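Subject: mismatched residue count in predicted assembly?

I count 342 residues in my input, but I want to confirm that the predicted structure covers every chain. Input:
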Amino acid sequence: MKKPLILYTMMAFVVLAVAAGGYAYRVFYRTKPSGSALQAEFKTTASQLIAAFYADEKSASGKYTGHALEVGGLFKAAELFDNAHPVIVMQDNASPISIRFSLDSNFHSDFAQLKPGLSIRMKGVCIGLQSDDMGLGADILFDRSIILSTENPKP
Amino acid sequence: MRIFHIFFGILLLLPIFGHTQDRWFTKSGRIRFDATAANSPKEIVGNHSSVVCVVDKKTGALQFSALIKGFQFKVALMEEHFNENYMESDKFPKAEFRGTILDNTTVNYGKDGTYPVRVKGSMTIHGVTKEVASEGQLVVGGGRLIARSSFPVVLADYAIGVPRLVADKISTTSKVSVDCSLEPLKQ
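Triage response: the counts match. Full output below for your records.
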């Protein structure tokens, strides 16, 4: 009677150890979700986001930095340096602050068809406000961004 | 008389244009940070591609700025630990360097070529500012100015503590590489 009990206990330990190891491995080597898999925690417009950072940078940073956002606004420009790291710039004409979306590496080709003045919706992770310390203008920065939709502005 | 006014107006505007064309900039500079130790189970490498950099060719002033949360790691847990435990990026959101190119007069910004330079200035990381000096190179070509440098950063110098439990898995001195492709600033 004692032998099966020891055997079962040992088997239970082995199963537990394997499960714990698997869990630890998964947690330790967990990769970040790509831009398309991100769940937007906030949906806003470029004007509203810029206004929030302009009014109270600390409060807006606390609310948005590190979170996935969906942002709608007018496309201003696309920048591409060394054929890598394309950036999409959105700007509210009434503000000196721009929004810069670094595109997710899996969606680099998506920016080619964009034209200034196009209405676009972007999704990405906000990494904060790069303040204007060098006279270049302030920017709200996003990483792992993707283009959700584009449409011509309503006349 | 009218021609005189136009000529005088152009003369007044010249210093403004002159000043802006003296400056080169990028908002898409790159910084690579490597703190991999011999015993690290995986490479500890963070990459940043939204670094702001400005070079003033007239004065040799050089400035970098990077949001800490912009460093991207392959492993999510590594990025979380980097921001929360080591860099405390909510408290110290930015790293920056303000300095001068010491041998700026040897750089011909109008002629394509590679110019080795020495840079000196103050670097602020994790809320701690230190005087640093480094060597690098400026590459002039194709209408752009490329600024490159690699230098070590001793984590303890910037009050970045490494827990004893993982002390042998994280290098106490990280290798930092800067690579910025700048364009002339036109305003």
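DSSP finds three helices and six strands in chain A. Marking this ticket as 'not a bug'.
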